[in-house]
Amino acid sequence: MPRDTLFILRSRAVLPISRPAIENGAVAFSGGQILAVGRWKDVQKKFSGDVVDLGETVLLPGLIDAHCHLDYTDMAGLFPPRKSFCDWIKLITTEKSHWSFSDYATSWINGARQLLRSGTTTVADVEAVPELLPDVWNATPLRVLSLLEMTGVKSRREPELILHDALDVLKEIQHERSYGGLSPHAPYSTTPDLLRMAAGVARKQKLRVATHIAESATEFEMFKNASGELHHWLENNNRDMSDCGGVSPVQLLARHNALGSHLMAIHVNYLARGDARLLAQKQTSVVHCPRSHDFFSHAAFPFATLQRAGVNICLGTDSLATVRTKPRQVIELNMFDEMRAFSAKHEGVSPAMILMMATVNGARAIGMQGKSGELKRGAFADIIALPCSGDVGELSAAVIQHKGDVAASLIGGEWAIAPRG
Q1: Strand segments (E) across 334-390
Q2: What letter does residue 129 receive in the DSSP assignment?
Q3: Which residues contact 181 (CB under 8 A, 6 or more apart)?
Q4: Terminal CA-CA length for the chain
Q5: From CA 176, how far away is CA 284, in angstroms rounded?
Q6: Correct CATH for 7-61+374-417 of 2.30.40.10, 3.90.1170.50, 3.40.50.2300, 3.30.450.40
Q7: Mean pLDDT of the chain
Q8: How confident is the model at residue 102 (pLDDT cuts 50, 70, 90)?
Q9: DSSP symbol at 126
């Protein structure tokens, strides 16, 4: 599609997310930006352009995967669920040591293809191999926020050097659709100084930051009680454990001024009293990964507590290294699978709310509120089409149950997946 041409997509229904569903709807766009969303008869009166009638479909914004590890896509099924979180860390660390640059590149691209065909148009990806950038960005039409992974406990490198190297990478990579951010991996795998400095730089440079936080019960025990398996393992590996004891993982981030609207707090499965309120006050988004949560058999995700506090909660796929597999089952990165997994565990949460977590809320978390995750004037023309044959009044429920590839996908007003016929 020529970007400067005005196009009108017509479909049986449009689900803007930020407003009710529209029967016999249409979306007009040009230059990669949406001009109007409304009923077909109203849009065609106001705009004149090339019409693409997608027939019995529903149009909705492309899904936003707020947490992924594309590097690990081809690790699908390698690791059965473990009783010990520490054992899993050891397994994936060992596996990574055997992988080549080519392995990571192939895995990344395979993951991007899976997300694309299943309706994701934007992904926040933790990048452990920054040398892949920006070449892998050019290999996909997806919008990618690549958050450069930083650790430092094992390497004993100074946090200033770790952060300096990551910022140097960000300066060197420029792209039309994609951009970079920072990911101090987790409080247990980084130092307090790195967490604090990364947050400071993020505020100054308006960068996004992702940190795995309060993911496991043993991590919670490590910081709250200065005990447990993770504490003992890291202590035996000469980690400085002086930051442990008396605070929850969330409170530890607050102590080092690492919470804020710039931060995507990944997982947050274990909360102390007041943690949810603290996250809400600091406008920190939480990213829940339902299938990964199930893989580790964590305690119930504290959705109600976080929601009552006013925390922005969104969804991510995590990696296929942490998705349960069954014999002869093919697993893929798929946000519809994550929505269904969440729905199965949270029956009282409406389909409309779940869909918001995969769209509007994700856009807010990655700093693209008003531009992605909803169909509205001025937003990116990131649009997906799904088959639609049921009651338009029940669209959200039907959308969540969608399985298979999308019927079509647009990113920035250009076909990422063209409609058949």
Answers
A1: 383-387
A2: -
A3: 124, 145, 146, 147, 148, 170, 202, 207, 208, 209, 210
A4: 16
A5: 27
A6: 2.30.40.10
A7: 95
A8: very high
A9: E
